[in-house]
Amino acid sequence: MQSPSLPQLHSFLLLYCFTLISLFIQVLGDGGFCSAPSILEADVSSKPLYWKVTNPTLSPSHLQDLPGFTRSVYKRDHALITPESHVFSPLPDWTNTLGAYLITPAMGSHFVMYLAKMQENSRSALPPHDVERFVFVIQGTVTLTNMSGISNKLMVDSYAYLPPNFEHSLKSDEPATLVVFERRYAFLDNHSTDQIVGSTDKQPLLETPGEVFQLRKLLPASIPYDFNIHIMDFQPGEFLNVKEVHYNQHGLLLLEGQGIYRLGDSWYPVQAGDVIWMAPFVPQWYAALGKTPSRYLLYKDVNRNPL
């Protein structure tokens, strides 16, 4: 076979480079990570809060229907669980509710994190003995009733903390979606926790020395509580100044926006709806990219001696 001439190689290389550039432009134009939203898209401001979490998109769009494609990753010290790989099944003892367990002790965590999709006439079950529960509403409305018969309406961006062995029920007459954290409570002598009901917008912004993000804590920082839930807000282009390495575990749900997350030696594009587990001492870092703010919900164990 005759070898191609130099002009032929030159033409081939030009065509190859043009093809790569065209594909790159297509990916960005299709709403890829860190791209500006299309002016043809529906106004995001008209959508309910956290709409993207329950209506996730894959990017780039030409990979959405590729068999076997997922951005999910599981490693020894971290995991990225993305919406296209969620597996829902009936939640044990809950009524008319489907659940997707996203973080469990099977991967190395000491807590459980799952999504609960409540349908019409749905009702929760109690967690196991000595297990505390935190629920955060990302879609719809649920009614929380405690053992005294006192009820609270929990809407999107509302939450509740339920102490271990605390009688309660969550009910919904219409579809609603919750993110739920549960862990076996680490008891301390002469200390106990109380039921808490609140909403993110009612929590004060806290100082973050050396950092630019906005921080809210949804639970008290006092000794009885062995974990907290943080809400962290980043404007586009903002990032963590500290490259964190610590003994605490994290469970994270990206509620809004998109960005890049470093976990160990890996770098992951992330967007609303993605869940991350971080084991103790895994290097971690986040930067918000794109043109819209980022917000994530973060579980963190606190107030207990690692021994």
UniProtKB/TrEMBL annotation:
Pfam family name, one: Cupin_2
Species of origin: Corchorus olitorius
GO cellular component terms listed in the entry, alphabetical order: endoplasmic reticulum
BP GO annotations: allantoin catabolic process; purine nucleobase metabolic process
InterPro entries linked: Cupin_2, RmlC-like_jellyroll, RmlC_Cupin_sf, UGHY, UGlyAH_cupin_C, UGlyAH_cupin_N
Transmembrane stretches, start-end: 12-29
Subcellular location: Endoplasmic reticulum
UniProt keyword annotation of DNA damage present: no
Single GO term (MF): ureidoglycine aminohydrolase activity
Subunit and partners: Homooctamer.
Family per record: Belongs to the UGHY family.
Keywords on record: Endoplasmic reticulum, Hydrolase, Manganese, Membrane, Metal-binding, Purine metabolism, Signal, Transmembrane, Transmembrane helix
Enzyme superclass (EC): hydrolase
The enzyme's E.C. designation: 3.5.3.26
Stretches assigned to the Cupin type-2 domain: 231-297
Cofactor: Mn(2+)
Name the record gives this protein: (S)-ureidoglycine aminohydrolase
Superkingdom per UniProt: Eukaryota
Catalytic activity of the protein: (S)-2-ureidoglycine + H2O = (S)-ureidoglycolate + NH4(+)
